[in-house]
Specification:
The complex is a heterodimer of chains A (295) and B (192).
Chain A lengths: L2 E2 L2 H10 L4 E5 L2 H10 L3 E4 L4 H7 L8 H10 L4 E6 L3 H10 L3 E5 L20 E5 L2 H10 L3 E4 L9 H18 L6 H8 L3 H10 L6 E3 L6 H9 L5 E3 L1 H4 L4 H13 L4 H9 L26
Parallel strand pairs in A: 2-3, 2-9, 3-4, 4-5, 5-6, 6-7, 7-8
Chain B lengths: L3 E5 L5 H10 L3 E5 L2 H5 L3 E4 L4 H10 L2 H10 L4 E4 L1 H6 E4 L10 E6 L10 E5 L9 E5 L4 E5 L4 E6 L2 E7 L2 E4 L10 H11 L2
Parallel strand pairs in B: 1-2, 1-3, 3-4, 4-12, 5-6
Antiparallel strand pairs in B: 6-9, 7-8, 10-11, 11-12
Classes of the chains: A alpha/beta (295), B alpha/beta (192).
Chain lengths: 295, 192
């Protein structure tokens, strides 16, 4: 029997993206640069997070014409973002044929109570998280890929490390629990019991776990990979730097050979200009933080 | 006989391949550097993005190491992206490839991700019923030449080919619990 868009098909695509770099792009020309540098996928956007942050206003799903142009330009999978809870944007992106939808805190949330019920879709979803419980809620709703949120558009890796460490520590904690402790743990976490039990037994998430939000240099990518990320999303870090082509190549290089410092040195030597300007996240007022959107 | 099976670990679902071979008590190791490739008796090129894996192979000198391995007649198996990289011809694409098999492939032959699917496949040389095959943005083979032999088709489309010690599958046996395709490859290794 032939079955389309099975759970294995969805998680499988996420698995094919492992060990790679997914780059934010705002037009076909940038998408080509990303593909030529060895990106495994591109995220089609109207504005990169740093510009969304600077310009303010409501950030929505990208113009479909831009997404289509990007889909026509590259052969690698194309992702696009919908607002948290905006299932109509997600329906449109699925009908357009994007390969992955990111229900993303980088855009202005459309619903303050509910995320999209992602099991209803044929297209796989990726969602952000700041800790294990949030990751499990999203997987429970049907996310086939998890990425830690970090603080998008900040050029500052501190939130990305906090969130990745939180997820990895959470998994270690569950592994150490006895069976009779799991129901109470699920209640306290606010996470689906079945997933809590599964992770306690398997010692890993049932979907891949990538890192996002704040990666600006090859060493940032190497750090996140060593902390447990299986791939990295680079948003503003490439096209807000002074050397997008060289930086894209260098970040791909450092992600491939993340555990080998001599290779990362070689990657860093390929840089040709300054990284994007960064923001001290501690100085950001609560309402300007993207990581706290979603629950 | 415990031959060293390298799993090309530059990018893609190499962990699933590693786990599958380890489950068969195989000496499977991830390989990322040319010297590691040269030290293997067989190689698996996993699923992933063929443009990415191809660029990394070229940039870091794995292209020559893999070609040397095939010149020694070591078995090489490519799944999905790996199949694309093994092909001599890729329709409407200038992308770099190893070009070791006399086949033409068409990328994303079934459409985009929403068209990805699973199906049951009868495979020549694999007994005890059909294999559940997971196709993800999968390629197909549109032409086989020389001594390349078709082992499986789905809807008349060629999805598995063998040429001497080279094996290519458009689908992902590493994503299911059925290990018969891995066993087929191990038999190739043991008789080489």
């Amino acid at each position: 029997m032939t079955e389309k868009s099975t759970w294995r098909n969805k998680v499988g695509l996420a698995e094919m993206l492992r060990g790679g770099v997914i780059m934010d792009v705002t037009n076909a020309e940038q998408a080509k640069i990303a593909e030529d540098a060895g990106a495994v996928s591109v995220m089609a956007l109207e504005r990169v997070p740093a510009d969304i942050r600077a310009e303010g206003g409501v950030a929505r799903m990208a113009d479909l014409k831009i997404i289509e142009q990007i889909m026509e330009t590259v052969t690698i999978p194309v992702m696009a973002k919908c607002r948290i809870g905006h299932f109509a944007e997600a329906q449109v992106l699925e009908a357009l044929g994007v390969d992955f939808i990111d229900e993303s805190e980088v855009l202005t949330p459309a619903d303050e109570s509910f995320h999209v019920w992602k099991h209803d879709f044929k297209v796989p979803f990726v969602c952000g998280c700041t800790n294990l419980a949030e990751a499990l809620r999203r997987i429970g709703e049907g996310a086939a890929l998890i990425r830690t949120k970090g603080e998008a558009g900040s050029g500052n890796i501190v939130e990305a490390t906090r969130h990745m460490r939180s997820v990895m520590t959470g998994i270690e904690h569950l592994k150490g629990l006895r069976t009779e402790e799991l129901m109470t743990e699920a209640k306290n976490m606010g996470a689906p019991f079945e997933l809590v039990k599964e992770i306690s037994e398997s010692g890993k998430l049932p979907v891949p776990n990538f890192s996002a939000g704040g990666i600006a240099t090859p060493t940032d990518a190497a750090l996140m990979m060593q902390l447990g990320a299986e791939s990295v999303f680079v948003g503003s870090g490439i096209f807000k730097s002074e050397d997008p082509e060289a930086r894209a190549l260098a970040i791909v290089h450092a992600t491939t050979y993340y555990e080998d410092a001599a290779e990362v040195v070689w990657a860093c030597k390929g840089l040709k200009g300054a990284a994007m300007p960064g923001i001290d996240v501690a100085s950001l007022p609560e309402e300007e933080r993207m990581a706290t959107r979603g629950w | 006989m415990n031959r060293r099976v390298g799993i090309l670990a530059l990018q893609g679902d190499f962990s699933e391949h590693l786990a599958a071979f380890k489950g068969l008590n195989c000496h499977a190791v991830p390989v990322k550097h040319p010297a590691e490739v040269r030290a293997c008796d067989a190689l698996v090129i996993p699923g992933g993005e063929s443009t990415t894996i191809g660029k990394l192979c070229q940039r870091f000198g794995l292209d020559e190491a893999i070609v040397e391995l095939s010149e020694r007649d070591a078995p090489i198996w490519g799944t999905c992206a790996g199949m694309i990289l093994l092909a001599k011809e890729i329709e409407a694409s200038e992308q770099w490839r190893l070009g070791l098999m006399d086949i033409t492939v068409q990328r994303n032959a079934f459409g985009r991700q929403v068209d990805s699917f699973e199906a049951d496949l009868a495979i020549e040389g694999v007994t005890s019923g059909p294999v559940r095959a997971v196709f993800i943005r999968a390629p197909v083979v549109t032409e086989v030449r020389a001594d390349a032999r078709v082992l499986a088709r789905f809807d008349d489309k060629i999805v598995m080919v063998r040429q001497g010690n080279l094996l290519a599958t458009a689908f992902h046996p590493e994503l299911t619990d059925d290990r018969r395709v891995q066993q087929y490859f191990l038999n190739m290794i043991n008789s080489s």
